[in-house]
Amino acid sequence: MTASTISKIEIFRVPPRWLFVRVETSDNIIGWGESTLEGHTEAIEGAFCDLRERFVGAEADNIQDIWQTAYMGRFYRGGPVLMSALSGLDIALWDIKGKKLRVPVWQLLGGKVRERVKVYGWIGGDHPSEVISAAEARKAQGFTAVKMNGTDAISWIDSPSFLQATADRVKQVKSVGLDVGVDFHGRLHKGMAKQLAKLLEPLHPMFIEEPLLPTQPEEIADLSNAVSTPIALGERLFSRFDFRPYLERRAIDIAQPDVSHCGGISELHRIASYTETYDVGLAPHCPLGPIALAACMQVAICAPNFVIQEMSWKMHYNVTSEDDPAAEADLHTYMANPEVFTVKEGYVAAYKITLAGPGIGVEIDEERVRRASENYVHKGSPWRNPVWRGEDGGLREW
Ligand SMILES: [Mg+2]
Questions:
Q1: What would the pLDDT profile of 233-259 be if each residue is shown by its tens digit?
Q2: Would you name the residues annotated as active-site residues?
Q3: Which domain holds residue 302?
Q4: Which residue in 26, 162, 255, 324 is deepest, having the highest Cβ count within 10 Å?
Q5: 151 C-alpha to center of ligand 1: Å?
Q6: Are residues 355 and 374 both part of a single domain?
Q7: Which residues fall inside 5 Å of ion ligand 1, going by CB?
Q8: What residues does the Mandelate racemase/muconate lactonizing enzyme C-terminal domain cover (predicted)?
Q9: For residue 211, what is the domain's CATH number?
Q10: What is the pTM for the complete model shown?
Q11: 3: left (phi over 0), alpha (psi -120 to 50) or beta
Q12: Ligand 1 centre and the CA of 149: distance in Å?
């Protein structure tokens, strides 16, 4: 096998809030990655100044050496910014290796252990309401499971009436015939979270996600012991090392690393094996773009403890064709082969359709990416998350 040298690393910020990575090699292989860190696009662009300086000229085949050098070779390591940048580079290098060897990445990771990948969509936005029509729309798309936000902005100890409203919404979604995961989004503090977890327990949600902020592994472990509902967490953890306190405390049942933040396909695959040793399932977090989703799917196909995959198709952050056809920025917008993510009976038929192609299996419409990126950059600031304040003027978790 002749060596492929990295000749160019480009990044593209595109709507709705994504950052794509394009890596080209000396033998003209193009790999795509995704380094989206929602709301912190410029920080990732800065981190790429360093990655470009270090790895243009490096052998693209040496994914593990590049990963370790990016991680260990500059003293400071980990965290959302450095790891999201590394994630996009890692995904692109796996895409290149698969294309060079003409096999999907999941073959390089050991081959499939399942035929289809179970997926879920989102209902409601940041302010969860009107859930029935949203649930019906997801059902019509082919989903059998969804996720929703548990509460709106909530103070440290808020009115108990907030909690009953959440339980009512969960009941409404279940009445449509869908399984539902409830994302607490780290919005609740312990005094409210333990009440809501208890209230939801008899409704059998698939999981409750980020019941508390990830700074609270001990308190999350207490909550995990207090209810039978599976506890999910991981989108704000950035390596297998970050998962360790949650695993050692038996605090979680489902790990949700985000392939765009946790170190790419290399680290997602390692986290899958690591969490399996604690009897913890894997549900990769992915409210992001098509490249991140394809990267998650590579691991989902070959990880024995895989549970379910998040998908952003028609999610509230995206601009869908129903919203504005001219400005569409949805999961399929930048893809030349959107059919690979077809959802049927709650699954994507991954090995037959999605990821039979070499590399990560998605074909990117490069012209569209370049055009969209140019327009988006001219608009000024990229996407930012809202900053929430309560009736008293005090900050609330978003
Ligand atoms: Mg979440």
A1: 999 999 999 999 999 999 999 999 999
A2: 185, 285
A3: 107-359
A4: 255
A5: 12
A6: no
A7: 183, 209
A8: 128-230
A9: 3.20.20.120
A10: 0.97
A11: beta
A12: 8
